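Continued from yesterday's entry.
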Amino acid sequence: MLVSPIYPAMNLISLILLDQKSEIMLKAAPKTIHIYLESNPNPNSLKFVVNEILVPEGMSFDFPTPVEAEEAPLAQELFMYPFVDRVFYMSNFVTVTKKEDVEWIEVQDTLKEHIRTFLESGKLILDKKDVAIPEQEETETIKKIKTILDEYIRPAVEQDGGAITFHSYENKRVRVALQGSCSGCPSSTITLKAGIENLFKKMMPDEVEEVEALG
């Protein structure tokens, strides 16, 4: 399934920050698009890796249902296929999660061609999207939790076609949100408890006793 990767270039999108309206627009420029496929631990998810940056660094967009893809034209089109269950954008890839009653060998080429054609057409991958409102002041414990997520956990999760973000911290319990291929992955619970939770217990033994996943 894997082929040689094509390194991303930085000129696929133009990012326009509209501070007054707190909106961003991601716009693709017509060009030749190359895509390779990359599997991940979730057998129902597949990464479609593009030779261009699709989403600015540090940003991700998760669409669990067609309703939530209202402002994401590419995701909307992919949801038109009855076997598509979830769509996720990040960096230079699109992760598609399929329904269990279909095999990837039957549908991967169709999705690959659709994504390629869409991107080469110069259509918007996203319409206007609200910029996140800055969070309230954080405690030192929460800052430390986010640092561990950013430096030790997030890179591996992104490599597998998903994303993990901090949700909340209370009573020595860390809650994180899983997106993309990680959501619903059969191995995500094992990874969460055997990997992520143990890491936090080791690095923050007095502050963290449990890690819980949402999504």
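--- second protein ---
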Amino acid sequence: MIEIIITISTFTSMVMLFKYFEKIKVNNLQAISANYFTAGILSIIFLPNTFDFDKIDHSTSTLFFALAIFVGLLFVFTFNLYAHGAQKIGVTPSTIANKMSMIIPIIIGIVLLNEEVTINKILGISFAFGAIFLSSLGDREYSLNKKHLIIIVLLFFGQGLADGILNWAQKFILNSSNMNLFFAVTFLAAGFAGLIFVFVKLSSQNIKIEPKSIFWGIALGIPNYLTLLYFVKSLKSELFSSSEIFPIINIGVIIFCTILSIILFRERVSIFNWLGVILGVFSIFIILG
């Protein structure tokens, strides 16, 4: 249970940092790239002392590195897609697509990992989806242009696929010895892909590298590394199945982010948001029950 609590806490701190970035005018793309390199370096630093490259199972090494790189590319892809969607379509539909994507790793857990399906789990997950939808709604109405539907679909499947691969990998590939190597490859792949985006922006627009953005990106990389580490550890724990952990973590992050946004940023919270929080707490109790 401690792994889940740490995951929720570190993920929430990342969201709060992003909110703070808006206030101090941090360049998100530069900060994100620095964040991935920081998380990758931390993954290398915390490789276990007993780690030996020669002990990697050569029969799975190709799949190991291929999945790590692919997940890293998905990280960058979904982040930029979310940012683009939030600007062109709206924060609400983009957030809903991002959060609702947890259905993909849940299905993978049930179908490929043979996790048990119970009435409590079905009800809890259903209420969790309702909570995510309500908590994503604000006071403003939004309209979804049909030509932007592809962005929503790609965001849904991109985020869901990344989480789904992690869910499968933690069961069949990752262990305490090679976990940090997987993280290092994932984060560094994301970092180099993000760097390409940065150079494209630098060459096409009158933008310079901002030391402030790099500094805050490094700060963001610390909770990012911890989030992935304890997220995978929570999936590997036998206290809950992955199809229970995904909604618990998602709802936990929403609850903490709502509370901290009110306290730290004095955000207005709509009645829909509060209903989402209440329904989210209810869904967690059902899943845990």
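The CA atoms of residues 233 and 270 lie 35 Å apart. The two ends are 14 Å apart (CA to CA). Will compare against the first tomorrow.
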